[in-house]
Amino acid sequence: MISNLFIFITYYLLITISVIGYGLFFFSLSNNNKISSNYGYTGLTGLLLLCIYSYLSSFFYPHNTLHNLIILIVGLICFFYFNKKSLSKDIIIISTLLIIYFSGMLIFKTHDDFPYYHFKYSFYLTQMPSIIGLGNFNLGLRTQSSIFYLNSLFYLPFVKYFMFQITIFLIFLFANIILISKILKTNFRNKINFLTFYYLLSFIFINIFFYRFSEHGTDRSAQILIFILIGEILHFTNFKFNETKILSKLFLIIALIISLKAFYILYLIFFSIILYNLIDVNNFKKIIFKFFTNTYLYLFLLLMFSVFTINFINSGCIVYPVSFTCFDNYSWAISKVEVTQLNNWYEQWSKAGATPNFRVENPEIYIKNFNWVSNWIDEYFFTKVSDYILGLIFLLVIVYSVFFPYKKSINKNNNKVVFTLIIIFILLFEWFYNHPSLRYGGYCLIASIAFIFFSLKLENSNQSLKKIKKKIIYLMIFSLIVFSVRNINRISNEVKKYDYKPIENVYFHINNSYFDLDEKIKKLKNDLSNCNNLKKKCNKDERYAVKYLNNFFIFSINDN
Predict the structure, then answer these.
(1) Which of 73, 77, 75 is nearest to 65 (CA)?
(2) Cα(72)–Cα(414) distance, rounded to whole angstroms?
(3) How do residues 304-348 score in pLDDT, each as one tens digit?
(4) CA–CA dist 515, 342 (Å, integer)
(5) Which of 444, 454, 449, 446 is nearest to 396 (CA)?
(6) How far is the CA of 187 from the CAs of 181, 184, 327, in angstroms?
(7) CA distance 78 to 22
(8) What is the predicted pLDDT for the residue at 544?
(9) In the 8-state DSSP scheme, what is residue 132?
(10) What is the pLDDT of residue 90?
């Protein structure tokens, strides 16, 4: 029905505006809070606030439709009340992107992890308060993500759970607004430099390579933000900056990245660059003051506390499946032996030692040192990685040729990017040694290294500034056209293959299996309640339910 599509589009717009509204509200509290004038950082700040709220509130009550409708309305009020300053340029940019990116939201087939645990986790938060020991239901539920907690806030009247894909879209949208703002800002001020080209390459990459929202999961959303993070680090080390604003941006981005996937805690290593550039023996007290008076630091710490607390109550591990962070002496906790076995399994899978039709012999020996490399090259590198690198090379060759020819002068920024490149190479080695699957950080790390080197070369283009500015705009428009064409082609294929009818029914495919977690939890809870209230002798299944709940599940303090 047309009304189906109308409701979907209405919430698509209202949720976006509402999230920006929370960011504007936070900016209005203090001048130091306003880290940017564009809707990109405003939107990410709104997501950060909602993310913290979602984690904390989930302990006490479910995020049902009434609760979420209030959250939506408050955000809308904030947007129209605090958006007093004229932002016509930003309105034009976000309106254009909302129209272009809508094709990406028309999804019938979701990725494999979505029905397995993404949907289940998000939906259970809308039905009941958080419970301890959730990870005992299935492996996926042991690895929470802020995406699930944000999703639960978008469970709204009429549309219900069919907006669970919008969190991924919002991260994609706000990241692209930031990139566009960075590129246009340098264009308008005639200060085009290597960072302009880094942002341009990142923008093209994200829109062409990550065009399919249904495949983002929790991994690609984090990697999109990593492109922004590296860009801000490069700005921090190469150009003049407002220390308070740059620190706020870094706290914001890193907090969101880690919340999306806990193992990205490794990216805290980027703070070494910040400290290296800030620490001055004569000004140490001033630096400490700037750190500890930054509001975003406390939002960062609050979100990190929430993330690792949820990790702990789900599985008994601070960072699952890192066994040394696990405490298996709690009744609901996963044993360290099992955690180690599963960590080895994930490592075996990421090193191409396990596929639907293949398992290596002696997996414990296979994953050690570099025993796995030759098989990984055959099974993974010459399929997915090689295809990815070829696509990346094709992108770089096109952009390089657009700005040809180049001056022979030595780039003055070479020395200032070395520290950043060293950190990225360290992270790349860690990625390759422990979990060499592109989804676990390979996309952004490989691309960022290439983008930095090529950007330093592109900065030396011998063309006139006017020509360079025009070509930058043309490349941005071209990447948006490619995004649209690829999504239209995807929708066409889904129409043919799955009989998808986006005009009549815009929603993604769903079946009863999506709800089995919620049903299982409620059944176990009812069994426990019946045994306790009736004081009867329970049968075998009921005794198991009582034991299971008593040993593994403790409902929130407000649950009766």
Answers:
(1) 73
(2) 47
(3) 999 999 999 998 999 998 889 999 888 788 889 999 999 999 999
(4) 25
(5) 454
(6) 10, 5, 53
(7) 6
(8) 46
(9) E
(10) 79
Residues 249, 262: Cα–Cα separation, whole Å: 19
- The domains of the chain are located at 2-350+467-510, 513-555
In degrees rounded to 5, what are phi and psi of residue 355?
Answer: -135, 170
| Pairwise CA distance, residues 528 & 520, whole Å | 12
Distant-in-sequence, close-in-space partners of 181: CB < 8 Å, separation ≥ 6: 36, 38, 40, 93
What is the C-alpha separation between 248 and 295, in angstroms, rounded?
8
Residues 318 and 331: their CA atoms lie apart, in Å, by 16
Among 188, 140, 205, which Cα is nearest to 452's? 205
Q: Angle of helix 243-260 relative to helix 271-278, nearest 10 degrees?
A: 170
Q: What angle do CA 276, 277, 280 make, to 5 degrees?
A: 85
Torsion of CA 170, 174, 176, 180, to 10 degrees: 150
Task: State residue 188's pLDDT score.
Answer: 63
Three-point CA angle 129, 309, 54, nearest 5°: 45
Q: How far apart are CA 39 and CA 176, in angstroms?
A: 10
Q: For residue 397, count CB atoms less than 10 angstroms from its CB and return exposed for 0-12, middle for 13-18, buried for 19 or more.
A: exposed
CA 534/CA 527 separation, integer angstroms: 11
Spell out the residues 6+ positions from residue 318 whose beta carbon is closer than 8 angstroms to its own.
Answer: 308, 311, 312, 325, 326
Mean pLDDT for the stretch of residues 14-39: 92
**Token duo for residue 75:** 């955000």
pLDDT of residue 272: 86
Q: List CB contacts of 182: < 8 A, sequence separation 6 or more.
A: 195, 196, 199, 231
Q: Which residues pair with 461 in a beta bridge?
A: 406
The structure's pTM equals: 0.93
pLDDT of residue 555: 45
The span from the first CA to the last CA of the chain, in angstroms, equals: 41
Arithmetic mean of pLDDT, 165-190: 89
Which of 457, 449, 411 lies closest to 431, judged by CA? Answer: 449
pLDDT tens for residues 359-412? 888 889 999 999 999 999 999 999 999 999 999 999 999 999 999 998 876 666
Mean pLDDT for all residues in the chain: 88
